[in-house]
Amino acid sequence: MEEVYKFLSSIENEYVRGWKNKGGKVIGYACVATTREIIEAAGMLPYRIKGLGEREAARADAYLSRFNCAFCRSCLDLALRGEYDFLDGVMETNGCDHMRGMFENWNYVKKPKFSIT
């Protein structure tokens, strides 16, 4: 179980690195309503963006109100810290206003190479 926990608690893992080393593209998404099959059909790897239980979100709090959910603030904070810089792009599903705000700010600050919102 320790190996599984280590795998799940990391942002970029061996599988993602291997995919990218072979020239593959990785698209991040956060909402469970995202149609992963569209990403896969385009030959890219869908990657679920995680907040990893980050309690401090000082960078994200400069862009999102503390009224926003902790998950969205944590994800944005990790992105602003560069933890998700390995992603080739991001895809937003209009699941909630908090998530939309997270992706709008992510796009504004990080300017990913590819973004579908």
Describe the protein's architecture and organization:
This protein has a four-stranded parallel sheet. The chain has a single domain (25-116), classed as 3-Layer(aba) Sandwich (Rossmann fold), CATH 3.40.50. Strand 1, helix 3 and strand 2 (45-48) form a beta-alpha-beta unit. The longest helix is centred in the C-terminal third of the chain and has 14 residues, at 97-110. The model has no long low-confidence stretch (mean pLDDT 89). It has six helices and four strands; from the N terminus they run ααβαβααβαβ. Helix 5 runs parallel beside helix 6 (97-110). The chain has 117 residues and is α/β, with parallel strands linked by helices. It is globular and about 40 Å long.
